[in-house]
Write a structure and sequence with these properties.
Elements: H1 3-23, H2 31-39, H3 42-54, H4 62-75, H5 103-118, H6 124-130, E1 135-136, E2 145-161, E3 171-189, E4 202-216, E5 219-224, E6 231-235, E7 242-244, H7 252-258, E8 275-276, E9 281-283, H8 286-293, E10 297-301, E11 304-310, E12 314-327, E13 330-343, E14 348-360, E15 368-381, E16 407-412, E17 417-422, E18 425-431, E19 434-441, E20 444-454, H9 465-476, E21 480-490, E22 496-506, E23 509-519, E24 525-533, H10 543-550, E25 552-553, H11 556-565, H12 567-577, H13 582-592, H14 597-602
Antiparallel strand pairs: 1-8, 2-3, 2-15, 3-4, 4-5, 4-6, 6-7, 9-11, 10-12, 11-12, 12-13, 13-14, 14-15, 16-17, 17-25, 18-19, 19-20, 20-24, 21-22, 22-23, 23-24
Helix pairs in contact: 1-3, 2-3, 2-5, 3-4
Length: 603
């Protein structure tokens, strides 16, 4: 290496050291960055320098930033070697054996293995030097119990519509960062007639830790799994995984927290079970990519996995490629680079690191995004259960997941309503004066639910069913056709309920409305209105009855305290919905109540 080239290399190393010590004050010194600093890997140093540039990103146009990052990566000198992809180094030793259920011991051994791995350089060139003999890769089908630790870092942009009620409206781009930590014990569940080679379609998990800290634009948020739902079941009959708890109902945020971008269940399926030589590549099937990346479908892919090196104790593999797929009907594109370490003695993948660049379109229920995620996973087979019940959970494999466990806990902080609903219902807007939920299936809107608080009636007065029917006719106006049914009664929670079903039309399209007036003995009142076209009535599946059976009116003092403690989040909701005032919200809500899903789709 020439003196000038040596100086250039030294300059990059100085930048890397400055980036870690000054910007992160040592906090970022995980296995990933330790490996970069020890190896003086040029690609790694370039990546750290890009992190340094990231702090100045608000001052740079996006394209200029991307070009600069690419140029830094391309021009970085080969201090030792040019090694791509830039992902954390693989551990060189298997995890130590654990004799007791100690999360601290598990993490300590995982960290030790990661640091040991980061001090060794793993490149295709060195792998070839280690030997080019053909070897057979294989997975043990006797491993049904694992301890898994997963960490994910996300950076990128989220694409949102300014008004969630108008999907085709004006869009805006917001920066997002997130850090996710998961630690769990999982047990594969199989039908009685299944073999070890059969695909795993059910998993039982005990979650030791599930925390996500994120920042969207200037709003910070933390999501953590409640202690009451740490035991969950994941069904993999259809993907993404269907996750539920037999103890209590999950929220949508908790489901999203537990639905990981890569699957610890399917990682072993990526290993080609055949004879291979170092440098040899094998194309990964679309079905295996679907299972590992938790996708609903893969339309096209060129992802290949390559054997880098192998000895008696372990084999190292790397994969890269692009995937065009979908998640719940929403198109998505992934560009992935990853490394795996196969523990040949255990017959299981013990370590994985995957860098994912994903671009997903805006869906009816979720925003679009253009993000880069780095996922690191440590995995160890267990001889016996540590925290899971000794007896495996009973699963009816010939039936779909139990529908009574697939309800989600839904709450509107601003309207003051909470209850249980079908998972297809997603909160689209929750602002002062109104909440709007949509029933979404395969990225298609089926129905809409509007919730509105009503003024308190004078002491001793209550609405009658006849008065409510007249109000429905007045609200619908010339859209009204006929009253199909009406009902008066009490909910399971002791609330007074008035329910009216009306039919009519909007611009010639048959529409059905279900309107509920809910009140309590404190004179609090809420109006709930379901709107759907005639073809979607059967798809409602009793969602109105389910909400009526579980609805609760949240105490105003509790709502005020909660809203005050989450002021940042509330400001974010108002900002994303482009709401200017409570009057505007009520105007939008009253208009939306009489819209059909067909109108919503056109909007």
């Amino acid at each position: 290496m020439s003196y000038r080239r040596h100086e250039k290399c030294h300059f990059y190393n100085q930048i890397a050291t400055f980036t870690v010590s000054k910007r992160d004050s040592g906090r970022f010194l995980d296995n990933h960055s330790i490996g970069w600093l020890v190896d003086a890997d040029s690609a790694g140093v370039a990546a750290l320098f890009r992190r340094f540039l990231w702090s100045f990103r608000p001052r740079l146009p996006l394209i200029e930033f991307a070009l600069m990052s690419h140029r830094i990566h391309r021009e970085a000198p080969a201090c030792r070697h040019q090694n791509e992809p830039v992902v954390p180094a693989a551990p060189q030793t298997p995890l130590a054996d654990h004799s007791r259920a100690s999360r601290r011991g598990f993490l300590a051994s995982a960290l030790a293995a990661g640091i040991a791995g980061s001090q060794a350089t793993w490149t295709p060139d060195l792998a070839q030097a280690a030997g080019s003999e053909e070897t057979r890769l294989s997975i043990s089908h006797d491993n049904d119990l694992f301890r898994v630790r997963m960490q994910m870092d996300v950076k990128g942009n989220v694409t949102l519509v300014e008004d969630p009620l108008i999907p085709e409206g004006k869009k805006k781009l917001l920066p997002v960062t997130a850090d996710l930590s998961l630690d769990y014990e999982e047990r594969f569940l199989r039908p009685a007639n299944a073999t070890g080679e059969s695909e795993v379609i059910a998993v039982e998990r005990h979650i030791h830790e599930a925390i996500e800290k994120s920042r969207l634009s200037r709003a910070d948020q933390k999501t953590e799994l409640r202690d009451t739902v740490t035991d969950v079941i994941a069904r993999r009959d259809q993907l993404p995984e269907t996750i539920y708890s037999n103890d209590e109902y999950l929220t949508h945020k908790e489901i999203d927290l537990l639905r990981t971008p890569i699957s610890s269940v399917a990682v072993d399926r990526l290993v080609p079970q055949q004879m291979m030589r170092p440098g040899e590549k094998v194309t990964i099937s679309n079905a295996d990519l679907c299972s590992f990346f938790n996708l609903s479908a893969v339309a096209d892919s060129d992802v290949q996995i390559e054997l880098v090196s192998a000895d008696r104790s372990q084999a190292k593999l790397q994969m890269r490629g692009k995937i065009d797929g979908s998640v719940s009907g929403v198109p998505t594109r992934l560009q992935i680079v990853g490394k795996l370490t196969l523990d040949r003695r255990a017959g299981a993948v013990a370590w994985a690191a995957v860098a994912i660049h994903e671009t997903r379109e805006i869906g009816k229920a979720e925003p679009g995004f253009d993000i880069t995620a780095t996922v690191r996973m440590v995995r160890k087979p267990l001889d016996r259960v540590q925290t899971l019940p000794t007896k495996p959970a009973d699963i009816a494999f010939d039936e779909p997941p139990p529908p009574e466990r697939l309800l989600v806990a839904v709450e509107s902080e601003h309207v003051g309503v909470e209850g249980l609903m079908d998972r297809r219902w997603r909160m689209m807007q929750d602002v002062p004066g109104a909440a709007v939920l949509r029933m979404i299936e395969n990225d298609q809107a089926i129905a809409q639910l509007n919730l509105r608080p009503l003024p308190r009636l004078p002491e001793g007065q209550q609405w009658t069913l006849a008065a409510f029917e007249n109000d429905v006719r007045k609200t619908l106006g010339n859209r009204f056709g006929e009253l199909i049914e009406s009902h008066e009664g009490m909910t399971d929670g002791g609330l007074r309920l008035l329910r009216v079903v009306a039919a009519g039309s909007v611009e010639g399209v048959p529409i059905q409305w279900i309107m509920m007036h809910i009140s309590d003995n404190k004179r609090r009142r809420v109006m709930a209105t379901w709107t759907m076209d005639g073809e979607s009535v059967s798809k409602l599946d009793g969602s109105d009855i389910q909400l009526a059976a579980s609805v609760r009116l949240v105490d105003e003092g509790r709502r005020t305290a909660k809203t005050g403690s989450e002021a940042t989040k509330s400001r974010e909701n108002i900002d994303l919905s482009a709401v200017k005032s409570t009057d505007e919200v009520e105007s939008v809500a009253s208009t939306a109540e009489v819209l059909s899903p067909s109108d919503v789709k056109r909007r």
